[in-house]
Amino acid sequence: YEFFCNGPLSCDTTYPLTKPDRPVFINSERTGVHGIASVGCSVEDAHELLNTDTTDYATITMAVGALSTGSISVKSAYQVYPQGSKTGFAVRDMNTILQADVFESITVCTYLDDVVRECKSGGDLLDVSLLSNIIGSGSGVYNIGFRTSLSYDEVTIEVGSLLSALNIIRVYGAFVDTRGSFGNILDCCVTAPPSN
Fold it and tell me: In 3D, which of 94, 103, 70, 74 has the Cα closest to residue 15?
């Protein structure tokens, strides 16, 4: 059995979704390679996303033109994250192609109680500015995600293939950034969306 601790969520804070600070686990139902023609595709070391060592990572490798996707899902055992928060994954692109091409191959989705809430991909994904970077900065490093409009308890990253190159993405961890979020989930009691 695994025991989870539920820490409070404060406003204006970036939370890496790691244990033991957050009650999270890898959802094996949405982690792995899915689809057909998956030769040369893999998801390795997904469990590394949950520890606090920022040098550990999982690797999603997709073969050229594969008709499958590789994904990793981080789920909270019982904590719900607020609407308006930003969520996503800290990644390092190991390819030598343009950022736009890499973003086009990635989809980030949120779920609540195993039901998909929102998905963003390609140009709808942002390189999210966090209060504290999970893995630092450098060539090919992105905090890829989006601002949510619905609450959620799970976030997934799905990587597809590229037409001209092997697609290798290192995934260092998932995050939730509560700046701009609202609802009764937060300790700071913001209950209405921020005015623009």
Answer: 74
